[in-house]
Amino acid sequence: MTIEPTSGQSRVRIFVSGALTVILTLLICTAAAEGVLRLKNASMRNYDVEMWRYSRELKFASELAVLGHEHQPNAKATLQSVEIRTNAWGLRGGAVSEAPAPGRRRVLMLGSSIALGWGVPEESVVSSLLQAKFAVAGQDVEILNAGIGNYNAERYVERFLHRLTPLKPTDLLVLAFVRDGEPLEQGGGNFLLRNSQLALTVWTVVNRVFGESGENSLVAHYQRIYAPGSPAVTRMNAEFAKLAAYAREHRIRVTLAMVPDIHNLDRYPLQFVHDIFGKTARDNGFAYVDLLPALQGIASSDIWAMPGDPHPNARGHALMADAIYPVLASEATPSREQ
Fold first, then answer.
1. In whole angstroms, how far apart are CA 288 and each of 241, 242, 321?
2. Can you list the residues of the chain whose pLDDT is less than 50?
C-alpha cells in the first residue's frame, strides 16, 4: 500500500530543495569569485592583498598581548614582487650574532612597515644603505632592521625591551611615522578576513565607501590622536620614556628620525605631528632628524612604492638615508637643553 505525501509535506520538500539549491549556488559562486580574485591578485599589484599575505606568511600572533603579532623567525616570502626574509630574531635580513663583535658599533633600527622597507628590495632599504655608507667611510658599523608592519611606538618599544635587548646595540635608530602614536587593536581579525581574499576585498570596499576619506579627514583624525593630554600621546610618551631610561642605563645612543606621510609633500598638512615627536625626542635626550625636508617637493607618483601603496620606494629610502647618516656618524648626542 503506497502512502501519498500530503500537500503540506510536498511544500516542505520543495522549500528544503529550493533552499539547498540556493545555498549550493551561493557557495559555488563564492568559491568561483575567490578563485578569480586569487588569479587576478597573483600579479602582486594589489596593496591590500599583499599586506594580507604578509600577515599570513610572515607574522604570528604574539604571546605578549601588547605586541599583537611578531615576525616568524627564519622565514621568507615574496610580497609585492619583493623578497622579505627574516633571521632567527625576526629581523629583516641575514643571520646576526647575539652580541656585536668587539669594537663594532651596532645600530638597531626600530619602526613599522616603513622601517621594514615594505615594497623595497633589502639592499635598498634605509638600514642597508646606512651600513653601506659607514663601510665606504671605513667604519665598522652594522645596522639591524627590526621594523615590523602594523607596529606603533608602544609595540616597537616593548618588542625591543622584551625581545631584542640581548642583541646589545650601541645605538637605537627609531624610524618613526605619523601613525606611531595611534592606538592599535589587539587580535588578528575574524576567520573570513584571515583566510579569504573575497572577504578582504568586500571589507576594504565597505570601509572606503562608508569611512572618512580625504586630506581634511586625515588631518582631523591626527588632531584628535595628538591633542594635548590625549590618552594616545600620554601612552606614547610613557613608552619613549621607558626606552630612554633603558638607553641611559646601558649607555645606548638613541636617534629618532621622523618620516612624513607622503600623500602630499608640497603643502604638508601634518607638521604639528612632527613637532610633537621632536619635543618628545628632546625631552628624552634623543637626537632628532625631521625627514620632511629631505622628501618635500617630490611628487607622490615618484616616491610611492607602487600605485595605491603610500610607502616610500627605493628613492625615498635613499633620500632618508642621506639625511640620517650625518647624525648617526656624529659623535655627540644632543643634550636635553639643546
1. 15, 17, 14
2. 203, 209, 332-338
Residue 2 lies in a domain: no
On whether both 25 and 144 belong to a single domain, the answer is no
Domain count, the chain: 2
Same domain for 122 and 31? no
Q: What pTM value is reported for the model?
A: 0.85
DSSP, collapsed to helix, strand or coil, labels residue 235 as helix
Separation in Å, CA 208 to CA 51, 179, 202, 296: 17, 19, 10, 27
Residue 16, pLDDT score: 75
The cell numbers describing 1, all together, are 500500500
3-state secondary structure at position 86: strand
* β-pair partners for 107: 143, 171
Pick from 220, 224, 242: which is nearest to 233 by CA?
224
pLDDT value of position 28: 73
- The pLDDT > 90 percentage for the chain reads 69
Cell of 115: 622601517
Decide: 237 and 282 in contact? Cβ < 8 Å. no
Q: Are 249 and 241 in contact (CB under 8 A)?
A: no
Q: Domain residues for 21?
A: 8-43
> How do residues 140-166 score in pLDDT, each as one tens digit?
999 999 999 999 999 999 999 999 999
Beta carbons of 206 and 212 less than 8 angstroms apart: no
Q: Considering only CA atoms, which of 317, 314, 336 is closest in space to residue 325?
A: 317
